[in-house]
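RESIDUES AND SHAPES:
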Amino acid sequence: MIALSSAPADLAGSHSASCVRIVGIDLLADLSGAFVWAAERVVVVSDLHLEKGSSFARRGVLLPPYDSAATLSRLAAIVARHDPRTVIALGDSFHDADAHERLGAAERAALGALQAGRDWIWIAGNHDPDLPDDLGGEVRSAITIGPLTFRHEPTGARGEIAGHLHPKARIARRGRSFDRRCFACDDGRAVMPAFGAYAGGLSIRDAAFSAIFGTLGFTAHVLGDRRMHAIAASRCY
């Protein structure tokens, strides 16, 4: 467990983020798909799936090979905006066991620059259970800070921030429906959206979310084009 600091949170409102309270802790669900814990200067991202494009290419499915660069660029923007003391990557940061070996020199340099001067926690995921020790940072199975526990696969425990399921919500607007990534949250736990450029999604109406939340009495904080939208899960489909 890491002790909490006594720094106050700065939660000045913005349409580009939703304020989410988990077991009494205020977090910002950012439009990028990151959680920002301002009081502790922590940024959390989940399911980067770096080098998914090259993994698919090896199986003959050709995708533009720019997903790692795009994902790290978006992460760099979050880090620059919030200047976190700690970054937690909630597992499946790499798409397969040797994806880190396929990272290009530019992407390795970008990752090194992101890690400079701050703590970096890699949480092991099901896609990357045995992370190498040459990536910089510290590898953990989970980490607890105050009342919050950060892990890859959700268990439904109170105070848990997890990833793995890539939540998405289908919403209707002006006679059209849209699938969008979202944070799935109630007052006791949260499942984060996938941050990776090529990561897919699982509907929050799937039984996997019922197992975590019990009912549809949770909220989808949906990533829109320009702002976040807090929508009751029961209104999504």
